[in-house]
Structures are given as structure tokens and as C-alpha cells.
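Milestone 3.1: sequence recovery, worked example.
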């Protein structure tokens, strides 16, 4: 006979087993009208009819889709045929044949299938897989399609997911440090990866209730465009990809997008989404899996706090450089432009001979215990240059599908520059030879190679560069091969490689990245990138420094933010900074550089946690180019040894009493910064 106690135990065990199963396993359930894949944290419900649609998507308790019919175009595929056919297929161009439960990478999934007709005899399938790992907070999206003989998939827009537009929502892209936009209507926001407009592969749509997270988990750094289309009541996320012809498998006659896209929702906000989901992904990549200590970065660079940007080779520049070094002291970094014998942004890569006295100026800088790197461009080749004709530069140029060159014109020169394919052996040899010659003849501390981590990759259809035509990973991989070769074989001991901007797949290739192109007109800079990567790279600067005068207030703001983000300070023209009217700005840079010298255990290998705008006496002022900004700002970090600290900086001319997070009050003196150990 079973007593009441035994019945209670049996019921408890049964309930525990049911709850455990609910938490740990992903299930697929079906009704007459719906099919649902879910675990205890996320659920996505599809229409179980003759037409594909998503009726609900509940992520961490939040239904982010409320309108049926918004999600009947989850993919768009463009094909290329043997006779030049170039059809763009939508799901409506094919026949939707339904779904079945499958396993994807060991996880429970649903595969949705469409059949599309390429020719009277060629019917191919498009299979979209939606999977949810057990106990995951993310939904994974993948796509595969058929490619019969002679056919390729040349473009994908996938996954196209439309969500209900949250009230008062803002969009964060990974442009530069991170850019937050108040949503326009209608508006399209593009983030080209990897580049200054897309340093990472994620989008964040957030309001006070939480944040939607959309990201591609591509470990190869392939070119792609993450797009956000904003409507009256909806927001659509999609990834537009010019594919690589190498992704179409001629043996299996299939095409597959070589990464998964994930979608999630955090009730705690965008910072939580980025650090909980994107940051762990970065450790699985070849660029994000290296610690700063493992990269053998010269100690002199780790000890650097101030950069100056010298432009030209003449007595005025020379005197200003020396004056700045006298003020900021040993280990001042001099980044030198306009040293070559042709005007800036012309005749690339024909830099030599250097201007007269340039080598002497470098020697003078080094004698004072400081360091310098000169500018070269790692991407452009002037088609009117002597070398382009003599070396057949056209053979190295990046090619459009019709064989034409990518040609760019910059306001600094107003001459034509062609985009060179980094996979070209000719171009790799030219950059390598330049690095060798600059070090040998000019005795520099390394080389700055512009645009590599800033400019988006161009798909290339040249057939002589050794890569599959179209897009893909060749752009990133080719620069990786080039930089690895230079570093291993040609970079002199103690010297460094530097590039422009902070596209993530290049962070381990360069000793320091100059991060100055973050957009701030029409948006607000947010510290998305430092939250993810601050412990694994060295950056310098914050945004472009003024080029006419530095005493309007913007340089003070830039210097404050630069310090709070942990970036090496300055990158400013010394001929402007050393003027009498810029004495306050020069002094502020000196003050924060002195404070920064004591923070290397935090800013070198430490991790940025969050931005702080303190309450209290903290007025907002109009900063030219940035809008209304508070005069006192702060940041919280955890040092390389695990100690939490906070910094506050006052860029104003007067003292301000702020209220700390623990409600205590503290005065931050005018044009000063303070550190608080927690």
C-alpha cells in the first residue's frame, strides 16, 4: 500500500523530471495551424499552411513579432546562369513544400523547403533551417540551395526577419566605437563588414525594456552588409552578401552560406546582449582568441600615452614636433604624414625618395626617446603613377564583374586611385618591399599602413589573383597572410605595424589601431567596441582631431572620451596644439596623459565595462560636431589583475560636484581626471 508521503515523492519526482526536460531539451510541436520550435527560453511559431510565415517569436518572454504576414520573405537569392542569366528569386517564385523536423549541428531544428525552377529541366531546392540548441537564448538561421551545372548563387539576402518596431527604439551599429541612431522613418541603415561602418557583425535594436540582438557568427571575416530597414511599425534585419563562387559546391551541386545568423532578446539591454552573446563568440575566432600578452607587442608601445600627427617636412613642423616632445616627454609617438615626394593621396605607392631632411627628423625624434612611424596606403594604386605602368598595376587591380576597375577619388587629392586586390602577389610584394625600405633607409619604428582595417572589402572577379571570384574571406585572409609574412620575416625587432580603424578581424595583425572615423553627426558614439575587445588590443585616438584650430571645445571633449575609452591620447597636429591660443588644450592633454601613465594595468589588458554619466552638477554643453554633451563623464573598468576602477573626467573650466553611483558626492576639479578604486 502506498502512503501519502510516497505519493508526494512520486509526484515531486515526476514534476522534477518534466521541468528538467523542459529546461534542457528543444522540442518541435505541431497543430493544425502552427508548428513551433521551442525550449524554456525561446519559442518561434510558424504558420502550418501552404504559405510560409512567422506568427510569433518569443525570446526571453518578449514576443517581438505581432503582425502576421510580415515574414513571408525570409530569403532572397540571386543566381548566375551559364548564358548570363541573372534571376533574383523570392520565395513566391517557387513552390513552398512545407517543413520537417531535422538535426542541425547536433541541435533540434526545423527545415523549410521551397522548390524553384531554373530551367525546364532544372528544379532546385532552397532549404532554410531554423535551430535552437538546448537551453539556448538564441535562434540560429542557415540556408542551402541547389546549384546545377553552370549555375551559381551570386548574392544572398538572408535571413530577412521583420520585428515589431519597439516604442522609442534606437539602433546601434558597430560603426567605429559604436553608433546609436534615433530611428528615422522610413530609413535604411547599412553596416558594411569588415570596415569602419561595421567593425563587428552585429546589430542592436533597443529601448528601455530591452534589446533585440541580430548577429552573424562568421569566423572567417567574410565581406557582408548588415542592413536595417525601418518602417512605420516594423524593423527588418537582413544580411546582404555578395557570395564567393567557391561557396557553390560543384560536386554536391549545392550552395551554402558558410555561417549561422543568430537572433536573441535581452531584457537587460544592449550592453548585456553584446557582452553575453557577441563577446564569447569572438573568442572562437582567430583574431579574438589571442590575449594581449601573447602577442609580443613592444613594451615601448604599451608604455605610450600620447600621439602627435606631424604633417609635412619643414622647419615649422620640425619645431612643433620638438616643442610637443618637450611638453609630453619621452615615449611621445609621432605619426608622420606628407613625407613622400608627391602630394598626399597621389602617385601611390611611389613614395620614395623621401623629402629632404625627413630621415634627419626621424633620427632627432628617436634620439629624444620617442618613436615614429610614417604613412603609407595599403589599398590604393594611382593608375597614373609610374609604377602602375611599369609593373602592370592593372594586373593587380580589383575587378568588377564586367572587368572594370574600382576607382575612387578623394577630396585630399582629386586624382584617380584604383583599389588593389590584396590577394595579388604583385601587391603583396610591393607592400613588403616598402616596409623593408622604410625601416632600412629611414630608420623608423615601424610602418603605418592605411585603410586596411577601415575600408570594406571589394568583391573581385579577377581570375589571376588566386582566389575564387566574388566575395568571401579572401580579402581578410590575404591581408592576414601579408601581415603575418611581414611580421615573421621583415619587421625589425622592436618595430610595429599600425593601421587605420578597428574592424575586428584585423585586431591581432597590428600592434595598435588608429580609431578616428567613428560617425558622430546624426548619431551618438557609444562604447560598443570597447565592451567587446578592450582587453585584446591597443587603440589610439577617439575621432579626427580638428584640422584648423583646437580651442573650440571639441578637442577637449575628444581627449576626455579618448582617456575614458582607454585609447592612447592625442593624434593631433602639433603645429596647432603648440600655439599660444591652444595652451589650455595642450595642458589638458598633458594632465590626462600623466594620469594615464599610472593606469597601464587597466588600459593595457584590462576590460572596459560601462559608460557613466554622473548625476549632480553636470551640465551639458554644445560640443562642435558632437552636440549636447555633459562636461563630466566616466567609465568603469576591470584591470588586468581583476580590480574594478572608475574614472571621471571634467573637461570644463570650473569644478563640478557630481553624485557617484553610491550616492556620495565628489568634486572633480576643472580640466582634471580622477580614479576611484572599488
Amino acid at each position: 500500500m502506498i502512503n501519502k508521503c510516497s505519493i508526494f515523492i512520486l509526484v515531486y519526482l515526476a514534476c522534477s523530471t518534466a521541468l528538467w526536460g523542459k529546461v534542457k531539451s528543444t522540442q518541435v510541436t505541431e497543430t493544425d495551424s502552427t508548428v513551433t520550435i521551442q525550449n524554456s527560453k525561446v519559442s518561434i511559431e510558424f504558420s502550418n499552411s501552404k504559405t510560409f510565415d512567422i506568427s510569433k517569436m518569443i525570446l526571453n518572454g518578449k514576443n517581438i513579432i505581432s503582425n502576421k504576414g510580415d515574414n513571408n520573405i525570409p530569403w532572397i537569392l540571386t543566381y548566375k546562369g551559364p548564358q548570363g542569366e541573372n534571376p533574383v528569386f523570392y520565395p513566391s517564385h517557387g513552390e513552398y513544400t512545407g517543413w520537417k523536423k531535422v538535426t542541425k549541428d547536433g541541435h533540434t531544428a526545423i527545415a523549410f523547403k521551397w522548390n524553384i525552377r531554373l530551367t525546364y529541366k532544372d528544379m532546385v531546392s532552397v532549404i532554410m533551417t531554423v535551430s535552437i540548441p538546448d537551453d539556448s537564448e538564441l535562434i540560429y538561421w542557415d540556408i542551402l540551395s541547389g546549384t546545377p551545372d553552370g549555375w551559381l548563387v551570386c548574392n544572398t539576402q538572408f535571413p530577412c526577419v521583420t520585428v515589431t518596431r519597439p516604442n522609442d527604439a534606437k539602433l546601434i551599429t558597430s560603426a567605429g566605437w559604436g553608433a546609436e541612431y534615433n530611428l528615422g522613418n522610413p530609413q535604411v541603415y547599412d553596416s558594411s563588414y569588415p570596415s569602419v561602418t561595421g567593425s563587428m557583425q552585429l546589430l542592436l535594436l533597443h529601448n528601455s525594456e530591452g534589446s533585440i540582438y541580430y548577429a552573424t557568427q562568421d569566423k572567417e571575416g567574410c565581406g557582408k552588409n548588415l542592413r536595417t530597414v525601418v518602417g512605420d511599425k516594423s524593423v527588418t534585419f537582413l544580411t546582404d552578401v555578395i557570395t564567393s563562387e567557391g561557396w557553390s559546391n560543384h560536386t554536391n551541386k549545392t550552395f551554402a552560406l558558410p555561417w549561422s545568423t543568430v537572433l536573441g532578446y535581452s531584457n537587460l539591454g544592449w550592453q548585456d546582449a553584446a557582452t553575453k552573446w557577441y563577446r564569447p563568440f569572438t573568442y572562437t575566432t582567430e583574431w579574438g582568441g589571442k590575449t594581449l600578452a601573447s602577442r609580443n607587442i613592444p613594451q615601448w608601445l604599451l608604455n605610450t600615452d600620447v600621439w602627435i600627427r606631424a604633417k609635412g617636412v619643414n622647419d615649422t613642423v620640425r619645431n612643433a614636433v620638438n616643442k610637443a616632445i618637450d611638453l609630453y616627454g619621452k615615449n611621445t609617438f609621432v605619426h608622420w604624414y606628407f613625407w613622400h615626394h608627391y602630394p598626399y593621396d597621389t602617385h601611390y605607392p611611389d613614395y620614395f625618395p623621401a623629402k629632404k631632411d625627413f630621415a634627419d627628423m626621424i633620427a632627432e625624434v628617436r634620439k629624444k626617446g620617442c618613436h615614429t612611424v610614417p604613412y603609407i596606403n595599403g589599398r590604393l594604386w594611382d593608375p597614373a603613377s609610374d609604377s602602375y605602368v611599369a609593373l602592370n598595376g592593372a594586373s593587380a587591380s580589383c575587378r568588377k564583374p564586367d572587368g572594370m576597375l574600382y576607382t575612387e577619388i578623394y577630396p585630399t587629392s582629386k586624382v584617380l586611385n584604383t583599389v588593389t586586390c590584396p590577394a595579388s602577389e604583385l601587391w603583396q610584394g610591393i607592400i613588403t618591399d616598402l616596409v623593408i625600405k622604410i625601416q632600412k633607409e629611414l630608420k623608423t619604428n615601424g610602418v603605418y599602413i592605411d585603410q586596411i582595417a577601415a575600408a570594406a572589402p571589394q568583391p573581385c572577379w579577377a581570375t589571376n589573383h588566386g582566389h575564387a571570384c566574388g566575395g568571401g574571406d579572401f580579402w581578410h585572409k590575404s591581408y592576414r597572410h601579408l601581415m603575418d609574412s611581414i611580421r615573421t620575416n621583415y619587421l625589425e625587432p622592436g618595430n610595429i605595424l599600425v593601421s587605420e580603424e578597428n574592424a575586428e578581424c584585423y585586431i591581432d595583425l597590428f600592434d595598435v589601431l588608429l580609431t578616428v572615423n567613428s560617425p558622430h553627426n546624426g548619431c551618438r558614439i557609444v562604447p560598443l567596441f570597447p565592451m567587446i575587445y578592450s582587453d585584446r588590443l591597443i587603440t589610439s585616438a577617439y575621432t579626427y582631431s580638428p584640422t584648423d584650430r583646437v580651442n573650440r571645445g571639441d578637442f577637449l571633449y575628444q581627449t576626455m572620451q579618448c582617456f575614458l575609452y582607454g585609447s592612447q591620447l592625442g593624434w593631433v597636429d602639433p603645429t596647432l596644439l603648440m600655439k599660444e591660443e591652444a595652451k589650455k588644450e595642450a595642458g589638458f592633454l598633458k594632465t590626462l596623459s600623466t594620469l594615464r601613465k599610472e593606469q597601464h594595468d587597466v588600459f593595457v589588458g584590462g576590460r572596459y565595462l560601462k559608460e557613466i554619466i554622473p548625476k549632480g552638477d553636470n551640465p551639458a554643453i554644445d560640443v562642435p560636431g558632437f552636440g549636447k554633451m555633459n562636461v563630466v563623464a566616466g567609465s568603469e573598468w576591470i584591470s588586468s589583475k581583476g580590480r574594478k576602477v572608475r574614472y571621471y573626467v571634467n573637461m570644463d573650466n570650473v569644478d563640478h560636484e557630481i553624485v557617484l553611483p553610491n550616492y556620495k558626492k565628489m568634486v572633480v576639479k576643472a580640466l582634471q581626471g580622477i580614479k576611484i578604486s572599488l
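The CA atoms of residues 173 and 670 lie 33 Å apart. The two ends are 62 Å apart (CA to CA).
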